[in-house]
Amino acid sequence: MEQPTEHKEIVFLLADDHSIVRQGMALLIDEILPDATVYQTSSLQKIEETVMEKGIDIAIIDAHFPDGNSLHILSLLKNANPDLKILIFSGLEEELHALKFIKAGANGYLSKLSEEEDVKQAVSDMVNKGEYFSETVRKLLIEFVYNPNLINPLRSLTARELQIAEMYADGNGNLEIANALDIKQNTVSTIKKNIFNKLKVDNIVELIEIINTHHKL
């Protein structure tokens, strides 16, 4: 593991609604950078305030909080402090969620299932390189170059297809959808077939999983 730059004073923000996660990360940071300053918060709403008031260099942020989702505040944080480096530390699967957070402004994505050595490497890389990408994320970034829809397969759908996909995910059947949209049932069936083909799914359960993962995060 590359060691952080010596004598470099770094100000961290640890944002997670679970105290044990924050305390564990704080101990690890202290082991790597004993002189670092570490602020903590369990609230999504407090993140932007702390970033602006405390001169945060590196923010290590969970994806989900009881009061919201951090994906939607990353651009605000970057606007408040363009030099801020953000590492998402989440239990959400890397393969499904990492690219979305990176595209939204995160400088790295780390799974909470990672080994301790990987967590140390991530912190070290954030300090020395300003970014951290696991092997999994690196592969996803390469795939994304050739398949932009990888970040969100729902983008391949038309507005009408997405509308109907959401209605299926909410438990509606062909007849209910047809009546609600004032279209024929065979039209709904045709659109359903197009949706399944574009998303490469075979049933409603798989469709619901994609909707929940990429549209309702």
UniProtKB/TrEMBL annotation:
Residues 150-215 form the HTH luxR-type domain. SUPFAM superfamilies: C-terminal effector domain of the bipartite response regulators, CheY-like. The modification 4-aspartylphosphate is found at residue 62. Residues 11-127 form the Response regulatory domain. Keywords: DNA-binding, Phosphoprotein, Transcription, Transcription regulation. InterPro entries: CheY-like_superfamily (IPR011006), NreC/VraR/RcsB-like_REC (IPR058245), Sig_transdc_resp-reg_C-effctor (IPR016032), Sig_transdc_resp-reg_receiver (IPR001789), Tscrpt_reg_LuxR_C (IPR000792), WalR-like (IPR039420), WH-like_DNA-bd_sf (IPR036388). The keyword DNA-binding applies. This is Response regulator transcription factor.
